[in-house]
Amino acid sequence: MGIYRDLGRSPGVFRVLFAQLTARFPFGMLSIILLLHIQLAYGDYTSAGIILASQSVGQAIAGPLTSRMMGRWGMRPVLTITSLLCASLLVTIALVHLPLAVVAGIAFLVGISTPPVTPAVRTIYPKLVPGRQLSALFSLDASAQEIIWVFGPVVAVFVSSQFGTSAGLLVAAAFMVGGGAWFIMSPAVAQVRIPRARRSLGAVLRRPTVVISTIVGFLFVASFAAIEAGIVAAFADQGGGHGGHGSIESGIVLAVFAGGSLIGGLLVGHRQLRPWSMLLRALVVLAGTALCLVRLDMWWLALVLFLGGLGTAPVFAALSNIVSSTVKFSETAEAYGWVGTGQLVGVAAGSAVAGIAIDAAGPRGAILVSVGFLLVTVISAAVTIRWLPDLRGKDATPLPDTEPLQLPD
């Protein structure tokens, strides 16, 4: 664990880490809150699926665009404008009952205005620590982001069940503004300048590793959104509060899932990446999720998801290392924009498909959706091994934008 202690010797590392986690926290809450809010307002999960799909389309468009804007106008202006706009739109959905089509349009704008915190911070990381510590920082980031993807839904379920889904959306908006301000005011955000991209939008997708990371990230995160919706639905009838959504049981299960991921990330995520590492880590998650189908007992679900969680953060760490080690620094923001878009769309898509599956087949339908996404994740990781980097004896520092010329003797 000394490798993580060494990170603290680099000024500003932990401030940036925790500030960006706070800024990104709402996106672990939003899919579940929107699912519950729209289901209550319009009476079915399919309507909620439409709203989440609209949001995901907006995110798909926004990710690489806002990332490139940071290279042109700077990180602070882009992050400030998008954070304020996105939070305002969430407040509108929370407080005003509108026709479904109008809400779908607002949800699309929520996606378009998603603050590009992830590409910003992962572009900053290589400038904060020496290259030999970069894999450890990515691993710590992947472990800590379980606060977002697992504890976010826990907070969402708790607030929505106790105070209503409108309150849940307002809490998400508050996190977006407050966390965004903390991150934006970090000195590193002002000090690190993202170079203006030299190639056209989308050119970075010619790198197989960026495409692989985007697709795998989409599938992987979609599986979590689906399993979270299934867990909430499994215990919904036991919960009180507004609409009977959620219960302490679902919170315990999701928290244990997060704990497994946190432990797995700290123990495994910093290890030197091999081409087959991502496949093995994804297989662990698939096994744990598939075992959820055996029975929907709280303690069984907690046990098997803890085991599956051991592979979760290590997969996210692998994705960050794969991109960082194979892309030029001037292209990292856009590359992480595509990867971040894949993950954010995965959250919305997984929740949307899971909502439809819950209407059709109950909680087990959502779990089957999660298993399906993970199965495709494993297949994708297996068939793309030939393009993945072998980082044994190397670090994950981005490729330089200029290369030395070999002069003749």
UniProtKB/TrEMBL annotation:
The chain crosses the membrane at residues 21-42, 48-66, 169-190, 210-236, 248-267, 302-323, 335-358, 364-385. It is found in: Cell membrane. GO terms for molecular function: transmembrane transporter activity. One of its GO terms (cellular component) is plasma membrane. The keyword Zinc does not apply. It holds the Pfam family MFS_1. Residues 209-409 form the Major facilitator superfamily (MFS) profile domain. Gene3D superfamilies: MFS general substrate transporter like domains (1.20.1250.20). The keyword Transmembrane helix applies. It is a multi-pass membrane protein. PROSITE patterns: MFS. Keywords: Membrane, Transmembrane, Transmembrane helix. PANTHER family: MAJOR FACILITATOR SUPERFAMILY (MFS) PROFILE DOMAIN-CONTAINING PROTEIN, PTHR23542. This is MFS transporter.
